[in-house]
Amino acid sequence: MKIACVIPARFKSKRLPGKPLKNILGVPMIIRTAKQCLKVIKRENLFVVTDDNRIINLCKKNNINVIKIKAKCLTGTDRVAQFAKNKNFTNCINVQGDEPILNTKDLKKIISFTKKNPNQIFGGYCKIKNIKDYLNPSIPKVVFDNNKNLLYMSRASIPSNKKLKFIKGYKQIGIYSYPKKSLRKFITTKKKTPLEKMEDIELLRFLEMNINIKMIEMSDKSISVDHPQDIKKVEKILKGKK
After folding, report:
1. I want to staple 169 with a disulfide (CB 3.0 to 4.6 A). Which of 123, 128, 129, 135 is the partner?
2. Separation between Cα atoms, residue 174 and residue 138, nearest integer Å
3. Torsions phi, psi of 14, nearest 5?
């Protein structure tokens, strides 16, 4: 068994163009994310995958392994799957490139689960603590059964009720674990599956292909950067640690 930590990165983000290169207290976001991973992962097992030369040059400058993906990719998971095709790794931990204060304990946890069950896809989640996050379409919400099998993900406010009140909910954490065989199946389609396209959530492709995903509870310490104001939130946290 051999595990790679893979960070997919693209420059043309719809909500925040040039997101991987955005400076957070003087350090580009993709570099901050990679450095968090390096607290857990050996450097030779960490890779940024991208199609953008600006990201490639920045990673090389900072001694971060970077792979250029030439194939046209629909999502970040497609980039991870393209990476896995020609690499001698049995499993890939996908860390989103917009997780600059990734909790290293969460990364250790998903690696531990992967080692125990290498044929299973894993995803992370945590509790939603306020109605603002519950209503935020930038935050995918997750619903799972008693055995933590993922039932559905949505940008809508789920689960809901007749009065449309916020009672409880869970949100996605940007860390996933994929067996190589599942990634092979993921890229057999040349277009997004219907629900994946509608929700703009790539994990739904696995569900639509009838591939099971187990959810793992993680901390709520990380912040996914989707908007300029998220950078300010992250900087505030980092300043507080100094």
Report:
1. 128
2. 12
3. -65, -45
Number of CB atoms found within 10 A of residue 182's CB = 22
* 237 Cβ contact partners less than 8 Å away, ≥ 6 residues apart: 101, 223
Query: Residue 116: which residues within 8 A CB-CB, separation 6 or more?
Result: none
pLDDT at 181: 96
Q: Taking a C-beta distance cutoff of 8 angstroms, is the pair 126, 175 a contact?
A: no
The string of pLDDT tens digits covering residues 30-66 is 999 999 999 999 999 999 999 999 999 999 999 999 9
User: How far apart, in whole angstroms, are the C-alpha atoms of residue 220 and residue 126?
Assistant: 6
Alpha-carbon distance of 148 to 44, in angstroms, equals 32
Q: Give Cβ neighbours of residue 103 (< 8 Å, ≥ 6 apart).
A: 218, 219, 221, 222
Q: Give CA–CA dist 216/207, Å, rounded.
A: 17
Contacts of 130 (CB under 8 A, 6+ apart): none
- For residue 53, the Cα-to-chain-centroid distance in whole angstroms is 21
Q: What is the DSSP letter of 191?
A: S
β strands within 59-212, DSSP E: 66-68, 91-95, 121-127, 141-144, 150-154, 170-179
Give dist(CA 169, CA 141) in Å, integer: 7
Angstrom distance (rounded) from CA 214 to CA 64: 30
Contact 1, 91 (CB under 8 A): yes
pTM of the full predicted structure?
0.92
> Radius of gyration (Cα) for the chain, nearest Å?
17
Which residues, other chains included, contact 54 with Cβ-Cβ below 8 Å and sequence gap of 6+?
Answer: 11, 21
